[in-house]
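Page 42, continued from yesterday. The earlier attempt failed because a stray header line got pasted into the input along with the sequence. Redoing it now with the clean sequence only.
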Amino acid sequence: MLLARQGCDVTLLEARATVGGRTGYIEEQGFRFDIGPTFFLYPQVLQEIFAEVGRDLMTEVPMTKIDPLYRVVFEGNGHLDARDGVEAMAAEIARLSPEDARNLPRYMSDNRRKIDQFRPILSNPFDSLLDFLRPNVLASLKTLRPQRSLDGDLQNFFSDERVRRAFSFQSKYLGMSPFNCPSLFTILAFLEHEYGVWHPTGGCNMLMRKMADLATEFGADIRLSEPVTGLEFEGKRASAVVTDQARYDGDAIILNADFAESAQKLIPQHMRRRWTDKKIQSQKFSCSTYMMYLGIRGDLPDIQHHTICLADDLVTNVDEIQTRLTLPANPSFYVQNASITDPTLAPEGHSALYVLVPVPNCHAGIDWPNVSAGYRELVLDRLSLIGIGDLRDRIVYEKVLTPHGWIDEHRIYKGATFNMSHDLSQMLYFRPHNRFEDVPGVYLVGGGTHPGSGLPVIFESARISSRLIARDLKL
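This time it went through. Structure tokens are written below.
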């Protein structure tokens, strides 16, 4: 959209029948589900991008601000509703810990400083180790506290473990644990409370569909169901894209597929000096997710738009996923009941229910064809923890997506839904660069490049890469 608006001759090649990738949609029997992301937060980034092409985001994609933002259920130990507005949120926290409620303004103020200092860092490419010596990077270290974990940093503000969990489960957006996720990412919960959580009418996929419409309006040629089979090179430079239908010359080739999967398949290893197969395979990758997309008869009026249920023994739950690489026996899970906000997602008298369970990625070697049916029963039983009784007789449409499905249907390396992990050793300069350092003419966009995963950050990567291309092509 950005490049077409600047006058580039843009061709977008999409393997699937719809745009959006992980932020695409499933539409069956009158039900529509987002495939992946369901939280839309920090709309400022996309608002700025739409403004760059002369459009208003909220006009183009109608949205509802959610309140409560979500409910966090602590297995066997109550719940907390994340309310819109600091005063309302403090009152809710006070039910669990009056002292922690008094510390909420201090948490907000600290993270306001964090985002003010870190957003300029995220908005720029990291092409050299010397970029770490930029004045704004050095000045941020005291505020960002990179030596701490997310949970460790929150202990400065919240003593009640339940409150800390409600401000740290967002590390799932990165496929990481709050116990080893860098403290920088306290900003994730802050962004929710500062700017709200939004629901685009029709789902997050509507953002992608609208951008595709605008890109087409600006002259882009979007070709669906046309998977890329390879790249061609002139010397070391990528010069053309090959599909099973045609060949396309290009002055710039933008790789917005899953980096770890597509780089190994499309770019010969001898052309990748830094990101060899061995290097890619040695990286730490996020967990995967076991997904259920359920169309059900009737509604669930007492279930919030977003509900996160955290396992009673969260430490063991995380250890099973990340260290033992076994299926969690008593998993945490997330449920979206968006039909209570958006009636367009299901036929009248029905609801669209989205269920996500963090599980190990395919590196674990779990035999999903044999365990999936049993795990389905476990997940359906655990829905009772958030007040959903037995749904089995009410299900009229069902799709299950296992980690193998993320590979087979979406070409995601190891089924690692959230890309490479966001350890400090895999961020900024140490992540694949937006101007791909190994192959001239190739640019990267998405969660596998700088700045990282999560929709606002991925949109920022699009802006970074578009600016690099505009500079390189002297637009």
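Notes: The longest helix spans residues 98-122.
Reminder to self: strip header lines before submitting.
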